[in-house]
Specification:
Bound molecules: 6-chloroguanine
Strand order of the largest sheet: 2-1-6-5-8
CATH class of the largest domain: Alpha Beta
CATH superfamily of the largest domain: SPOUT methyltransferase, trefoil knot domain
Number of helices: 9
Strand content: 15-25%
Number of strands: 10
Distance between the termini: 69 Å
Oligomer: single chain
Helix content: 25-40%
């Protein structure tokens, strides 16, 4: 997978390319990365990339000529790549989109800055608009890094055997189960006994249970949009029964503070 990023701050990407899994993926040839300076495509002595908006108003707009020239130059090397504009107006990035993008041959990211990009560039040179969430960043650079990071780890062979993408939070529509490592007792809290038992089936069941309960407590919206497996249904029903038993076994006492009566 080839990633090219068009930005006026290419230096922002240097530490990103040079660490961790992104670095390893680049070194092993699973990805190739480049940050292209839009300023290099700007004419004139000052290589200006922005200008005042027609119609007035505050803020600056990215000029169309340098940006379109930069996109054309990069596209010549990556003819099959989609051209993604990072903008808060784009569709919201999620794990499913990361998965879709991970089978592309190449992606060109265009990082907007200032108040926005000249509309004629958006219309003539951009195939996708993506946002990373409902908040406003000063530019698309961090968003491009977020997307490149999430996509890279899904490319086959990028994660080693010990770091699996299949068990990720979201990949099965559930949050990941709880994790423990040594020591066995930390500040008075023990690792759950089942994890020390060596019973792989029981461990899998426990993990699925913690995964389900976490999702229910932290992100119930994820459960609503997902079909439960037979085993998951069983686990949830067991909890329901356990909770009902607890309630049934409690004696009724005191008054109901919500009813307002004494
Ligand atoms: Cl992709 N760009 C900017 N500037 N702000 C954002 C964003 C992108 N995604 C969320 N906020």
């Amino acid at each position: 997978m080839k990633f090219a990023v068009l930005t006026i701050f290419p230096e922002m990407f240097v530490p990103f390319w040079e660490h961790g899994i992104i670095r390893r993926a680049a070194e092993s040839g699973k990805i190739s990365v480049s940050a292209v300076n839009i300023r290099d495509f700007a004419e004139g002595r000052h290589h200006v990339t922005d200008d005042r908006p027609y119609g007035g108003g505050c803020g600056m707009v990215m000029k169309p000529e340098p940006l379109s020239a930069a996109i054309r130059a990069v596209k010549a090397d990556m003819p099959s790549a989609r051209t993604v504009l990072l903008t808060p107006q784009g569709r919201i990035f999620d794990q499913k989109t990361a998965c879709e993008l991970s089978s592309d041959e190449g992606i060109i990211f265009v990082c907007g800055r200032y108040e926005g990009v000249d509309e004629r560039v958006c219309q003539g040179f951009i195939s996708d608009e993506i946002s990373i969430g409902d908040y406003v960043l000063t530019g698309g650079e961090l968003a491009a890094m977020v997307i490149i990071d999430a996509v890279t780890r899904l490319i086959p062979g990028v994660l080693g055997g010990t770091e699996s993408a299949e068990k990720d939070s979201f990949s099965q529509g559930l949050l990941e189960h709880a994790h423990y490592t040594r020591p066995r007792t930390f500040e008075g809290t023990d690792v759950p006994e089942v994890l020390l038992s060596g019973h792989h089936k029981e461990i899998d069941t426990w993990r699925l249970e913690t995964s389900l309960i976490r999702t229910f407590l932290k992100r119930p919206d994820l459960l609503k949009n997902r079909t439960l497996s037979i085993q998951e249904r069983k686990i949830l029903k067991k909890w329901c029964a356990d909770i009902e038993n607890i309630i049934r076994d409690q004696p009724l006492c005191g008054t109901d503070p919500l009813s307002g009566s004494q």
